[in-house]
Write a structure and sequence with these properties.
Length: 162
Amino acid sequence: MKLYEVATSLEQLEFVDKETGEVNLEMLEQLKMTFNEKSENIIKYIKNLNADIVSLKAEEKALQERRKAKENKVEYLKEYLKTTMLQVGSNKLEFTAGIASFRSSKSIECESEFVNWAKEKNAELLTYKEPEPNKTKIKELLENGGELEFVNLVEKQNLQIK
């Protein structure tokens, strides 16, 4: 019998005789025991899954650190090769293992005063982000008796497994 079937049986009072209204105590106890046993197994399974999650997160972090170290090493070696090529005046290196060459690119570097200048002279050169609700402040306000339009404080029931 599945947990939801046990819960349905308890909810629909299947342990009560429809005609006499007598309670079948043996059936009630069996349903309660089954419910408790299945619930305990689900809790154990949740705890096992949470342990797996912790383990996976640790492994993800370790892999991320290893990846980041390799990316940093690549950047260091590329900068080292670039500096060396510029020192010897070489624009291109060709080997069977690969080719290293320079290509031109352009990027923008803005000084800190640019934003103020652009606000006054040419606002098209600036972009603005959409504002977002500060949910922490809104929650504080509502919990302290404040009222706001278009906002509801919703209470949820969160299951906690320890």
